[in-house]
Design goal:
Low-confidence stretches of chain B: none
Number of helices of chain B: 0
Helix content of chain A: under 10%
Distance between the termini of chain B: 37 Å
Largest sheet of chain A: 6 strands, mixed
Mean pLDDT of chain A: 94
Helix content of chain B: under 10%
Largest sheet of chain B: 7 strands, mixed
Low-confidence stretches of chain A: none
Strand content of chain B: over 45%
Strand content of chain A: over 45%
Number of strands of chain B: 11
Order of helices and strands of chain A: EEEEEEEEEEE
Oligomer: heterodimer
């Protein structure tokens, strides 16, 4: 089955800095890569996703890049704000199959 | 957008009792729902896949008789933790896939179970 590795487990940045979270996957058949943000005690929420037919996708301060050859994808958050503090999960799936989640990254943005 | 409602949000029960958690898709039909367990500061661990009108599919290591899943309609799946013990205390979250292949999975709001 699919195996998703996520790094780092904890990321601490100053407000205004950029944050990058990296994930690798094992199954070359995976073609859908969502990212979820989970605030303490709340549900994970989809913040951005990318399909294997594109290499990069942006949505305001958030971007995701995908390298299919290397089987890794990354989340980039620019101009971080304290409200970006949360746990971020990457995931990988093949089509409609349920995604496999990474272990999560706790992002802390210091004012 | 797609909404998944989960109740209760918090429950405290005595050891040995059973607790039922409900997961409803509010504006779409979900033939398949998923149940996760999440320990503090850890990732989502898939427990089982709930299939409408048929038996649930459990992940390896998950006790079927302890975590009873019923998916009686296209909008409702329930997870019953039977004979709960303190080690069952956790955050339980359901999710459902809403519509198109790449539409993504929508999560319920989660249930914090504390067994005393």
């Amino acid at each position: 089955g699919e195996n998703v590795e996520q790094h780092p487990s904890t990321l601490s940045v100053q407000e205004g800095d950029s944050a990058v979270i990296k994930c690798t996957y094992s199954d070359s058949a995976s073609n859908y890569f969502p990212w979820y943000k989970q605030e303490l005690g709340k549900r994970p929420q989809l913040i951005i996703d990318i399909r294997s037919n594109v290499g990069e996708k942006k949505d305001q301060r958030i971007a995701v890049t995908l390298n299919k050859t290397a089987k890794h994808f990354s989340l980039h958050i620019t101009e971080t704000q304290p409200e970006d503090s949360a746990v971020y999960f990457c995931a990988a799936s093949m089509g409609s199959y349920i995604p496999t989640f990474g272990r999560g990254t706790s992002l802390i943005v210091h004012p | 957008g797609a909404v998944v409602s989960q109740h209760p949000s918090r429950v405290i029960c005595k050891s040995g009792t059973s607790v039922k958690i409900e997961c409803r898709s509010l504006d779409f039909q979900a033939t398949t729902m998923f149940w996760y367990r999440q320990f503090p500061k850890q990732s989502l661990m898939l427990m089982a896949t709930s299939n409408e009108g048929s038996k649930a599919t459990y992940e390896q290591g998950v006790e079927k008789d302890k975590f009873l899943i019923n998916h009686a309609s296209l909008t409702l799946s329930t997870l019953t933790v039977t004979s709960a013990h303190p080690e069952d205390s956790s955050f339980y979250i359901c999710s459902a896939r809403s519509g198109e292949v790449y539409y993504g999975y929508t999560f319920g709001s989660g249930t914090r179970l504390t067994v005393v």
